[in-house]
Write a structure and sequence with these properties.
Blueprint lengths: L8 E12 L2 E12 L3 E5 L6 H9 L6 E6 L2 E2 L5 H6 L2 E4 L11 H5 L14 H9 L20 H14 L4 E5 L7 H16 L3 E6 L2 H7 L2 E6 L2 E7 L5 H9 L3 H4 L10 E10 L3 E9 L14 H8 L4 H4 L5 E3 L2 E3 L23 H14 L1
Helix pairs in contact: 5-6
This protein binds adenosine-5'-diphosphate (ADP) and magnesium ion.
The site of adenosine-5'-diphosphate has 11 residues, from strand 2 and helix 1.
Length: about 375
C-alpha cells in the first residue's frame, strides 16, 4: 500500500482494461470519485459503464490497471471487499428478497441477533429506523418488499447502503424502470445523500438527466473514456459529441435538409369518426414525424392507410404500435445509425421496398 496522493479523492481507477472473449469492454479507462459529489458516468448502451462498476465492485477482475481507495492500492477481488471499503453498488437488477420485510432487506445477510441466536424483526425495525441519514421509504418497515413500488425499492436498497456506512453509492441506470415523478423523487434522494456527504456515481445513457443532478461527468464511448469535466463546463452538444463521436446536428439533422425519396404518401385520409383528413409522407430512410400525431391516434391512421390490414404488413415493412410507426429492427435504421448486421439506413431490402410500394399503391 502506498500513501494517499489526493485527500479529496476517495476512489481512483487507473488504466482499467477489460477483455471479454472477442471484445474489449474497457480500454485504458481512468475514473475517480471525490467525497460528496454526484458523478455521472455516461455513455451509450454497450459503452462499458456497467463493466467498470463491476470491476470496482470486485465482481469482475480487470486485465490491467489499478484501483486506489483513499490513495491506497486495493486489490478488490470480491464484493465483500468493496463493501468493506465503503463502496456500495446498486445494479440494474435490484438485489431484494421480495418475501422479506423492508427492515430485513436493509440488513440482508447482516441480521442483528436476539437471545438464542434468533433473528429479531423488532430489533431490525428499530435498527432500520436508526440508520444515519436514511431515506424515508414511505412504508412501515415491516411491509414485505414485494409490496413496494420500484422507487420505494430503490430507497430501501439505498438505505441498505447507508446502513453499511457506504461513502460512495454507485447506481447503475436507476431511472430505466422509473416513472417521471419517481425520477424526480430519486433525484431528491440523491441530493439528500450528497448534502450529507455521501458520494453518488450515477450511471446513465440518458444525457438530459445528468444536467439535473450531476456535479461532474465522465463519458465513455466504445470502451474508451472520451472525457471528464465539471458539469458547468459541459453542454449537451459537447456530451453528445463525446458519447457518439459526432455532432448533435448530425444526430437530429435540420428540417431544411433535402428530403429523400418518398416511399409512402397518404393524402386526405378519413375513416369514420376516427381519422379526419390526414396527410403525411414517409421518406426513404426517414421518419414521417407521425408520432407527433399522438392525440389523433396514428395507431388508427396506420391501419386506415393500409386499408385496415396492418397485420399483413407485419414482417414486411411497417407495423403500427403505441402511437408511432416502427419497422422491424434490422430492416430499417434511423438516419445515421447503422442497424445490427450492417443494415444501412433506409429500406434495407428491396423486397420490403416493393411491399411498401405495393401497399402504397393500394391505398392511394
Ligand atoms: N459478461 C460478459 N461477457 C461478455 N461480454 C460482455 C459481458 N458483460 C458485458 N459484455 C460486453 O461488454 C460491452 C460493455 O458492456 P456494458 O459494460 O454492460 O455496457 P454498458 O453498461 O455501458 O451498456 C458490451 O459490448 C457487452 O456486450
Ligand atoms: Mg449497463
Amino acid at each position: 500500500m502506498k500513501a494517499a496522493t489526493d485527500a479529496k479523492v476517495i476512489l481512483q481507477a487507473r488504466g482499467i482494461v477489460k477483455d471479454f472473449p472477442g471484445q474489449r469492454a474497457l480500454d485504458d479507462v481512468d475514473f475517480d470519485v471525490r467525497s460528496g459529489e454526484v458523478h455521472a458516468l455516461i455513455g451509450e448502451n454497450g459503452a462499458g459503464k456497467s463493466t467498470l462498476l463491476k470491476i470496482i465492485a470486485g465482481v469482475y477482475h480487470a486485465d490491467r490497471g489499478e484501483i486506489l481507495v483513499d490513495g491506497y492500492h486495493c486489490d478488490i477481488t470480491n464484493p465483500r471487499e468493496s463493501q468493506a471499503l465503503g463502496l456500495a453498488f446498486i445494479h440494474q437488477e435490484l438485489n431484494i428478497v421480495p418475501h422479506l420485510s423492508v427492515a430485513e432487506n436493509i440488513f440482508l445477510g447482516r441480521y442483528p441477533r436476539a437471545r438464542f441466536g434468533l433473528v429479531s424483526l423488532a430489533k431490525m425495525v428499530e435498527s432500520a429506523q436508526n440508520v444515519p441519514n436514511a431515506l424515508n421509504v414511505g412504508v412501515d418497515l415491516r411491509t414485505l418488499a414485494q409490496n413496494l413500488s420500484v422507487i420505494q425499492q430503490w430507497k430501501m436498497v439505498i438505505n441498505r447502503a447507508l446502513a453499511q456506512n457506504s461513502r460512495i453509492i454507485f447506481m447503475d441506470e436507476p431511472t430505466s424502470s422509473l416513472t417521471h415523478e419517481e425520477v424526480n423523487d430519486l433525484f431528491r434522494s440523491i441530493t439528500h445523500l450528497k448534502e450529507r456527504g455521501t458520494a453518488v456515481v450515477y450511471v446513465s445513457h440518458r444525457m438530459e438527466e445528468i444536467f439535473h443532478i450531476a456535479d461532474r461527468v465522465t463519458v465513455i464511448k466504445d470502451a474508451k473514456k472520451t472525457g471528464s469535466a465539471n458539469i458547468g463546463e459541459m453542454d449537451s452538444g459537447k456530451i453528445y459529441h463525446m458519447m457518439l463521436g459526432r455532432e448533435l446536428k448530425d444526430v437530429f439533422p435540420d428540417r431544411e435538409e433535402p428530403q429523400k425519396a418518398v416511399c409512402l404518401e397518404v393524402k386526405n385520409l378519413s375513416r369514420g369518426h376516427v381519422v379526419k383528413n390526414v396527410s403525411f409522407c414517409l421518406h426513404r430512410g426517414g421518419n414521417s414525424g407521425n408520432r407527433r400525431l399522438g392525440r389523433i391516434g396514428p395507431h388508427r391512421i396506420g391501419p386506415s392507410a393500409f386499408r385496415g390490414r396492418p397485420e399483413r404488413l407485419r414482417g414486411y415493412s411497417c407495423q403500427w404500435r403505441d402511437g408511432e410507426y416502427s419497422i422491424p429492427w434490422g430492416r430499417y435504421s434511423p438516419p445515421n445509425r447503422p442497424g445490427p448486421g450492417g443494415a444501412t439506413p433506409g429500406w434495407a431490402h428491396s423486397s420490403h421496398e416493393r411491399q411498401a410500394k405495393h401497399y402504397s399503391r393500394q391505398s392511394g
